[in-house]
From TrEMBL:
Its cofactor is Zn(2+). One of its GO terms (cellular component) is cytoplasm. It catalyses: a 4-O-methyl-thymidine in DNA + L-cysteinyl-[protein] = a thymidine in DNA + S-methyl-L-cysteinyl-[protein]; a 6-O-methyl-2'-deoxyguanosine in DNA + L-cysteinyl-[protein] = S-methyl-L-cysteinyl-[protein] + a 2'-deoxyguanosine in DNA. One of its GO terms (biological process) is methylation. Its main location: cytoplasm. Residues 21-98 form the Methylguanine DNA methyltransferase ribonuclease-like domain. Keywords: Cytoplasm, DNA damage, DNA repair, DNA-binding, Metal-binding, Methyltransferase, Phosphoprotein, Transferase, Zinc. Residues 105-185 form the Methylated-DNA-[protein]-cysteine S-methyltransferase DNA binding domain. This is Methylated-DNA--protein-cysteine methyltransferase. InterPro entries: MethylDNA_cys_MeTrfase_AS (IPR001497), MethylDNA_cys_MeTrfase_DNA-bd (IPR014048), MethylDNA_cys_MeTrfase_DNAb (IPR036217), MethylG_MeTrfase_N (IPR008332), MGMT (IPR023546), MGMT_N_sf (IPR036631), WH-like_DNA-bd_sf (IPR036388).
């Protein structure tokens, strides 16, 4: 944060958390990144001006502070790891993550996904449900994927239908295809 501490009280009585953000270019378009002192808290696809404003409003409301634009400090390592990922580096994202934008079942599923589905592999919605002890919750796993605040880093693009279909994806199916192609799961798109 460049030595700047933000002291404020958000609604709900919790102490304020400093939030840094930036937009980085990637092979799948601009990505909005935000981090707190606890770790990376948000990744958002298609980070045009309107999307940035929306994300800044949400984060400001959630954390009780005005997010500060900064591509160093809290975000420096996340930016380096994303650049390496898009260059084909298969290493896991060993980044501190701030899980405060997800709770309960969704958090449980996303944590399993983050640690249990490595680069270049896929898992079915039903299998992921079984892994978290809820074998009948494939649809709920789909909802958790749609609510993932950390796509790419927490690789919801690696969750597919049991019949081999892609399923849904918050960043759009073409983005999901591109990410799976980058990891060697699908053939590269023809464009």
């Amino acid at each position: 944060m460049g030595g700047m501490d933000i002291e404020a009280e958000p609604t709900g009585g919790e102490p304020a958390v400093a939030v840094e953000w930036t937009v980085v270019e990637s092979d799948i378009g601009p990505l909005f990144l935000a981090a707190t002192g606890r770790g990376l808290v948000r990744v958002e696809f298609h980070a045009d001006a309107a999307r940035r404003v929306q994300m800044l409003d949400r984060l400001g409301g959630r954390f009780g502070v005005e997010p500060v634009e900064c591509a160093s400090g809290l975000l420096a390592e996340a930016i380096r790891r994303l650049e390496a990922y898009f260059a084909g580096d298969p290493r896991p994202f060993d980044l501190p993550l701030d899980w405060s934008l997800t709770t309960g079942f969704n958090r449980q599923v996303l944590r399993e996904l983050a640690t249990g589905v490595p680069y270049g592999t896929v898992v079915g919605y039903g299998e992921l449900a079984r892994r978290v002890g809820q074998p009948g919750a494939a649809q709920a796993v789909g909802a958790a994927m749609g609510a993932n605040p950390l796509p790419v880093v927490v690789p919801c693009h690696r969750v597919v239908e049991s019949d081999g279909g892609l399923g849904g994806f918050g960043g759009g199916l073409e983005t999901k295809r591109q990410l799976l192609a980058l990891e060697g799961v699908l053939p590269a798109p023809l464009f």
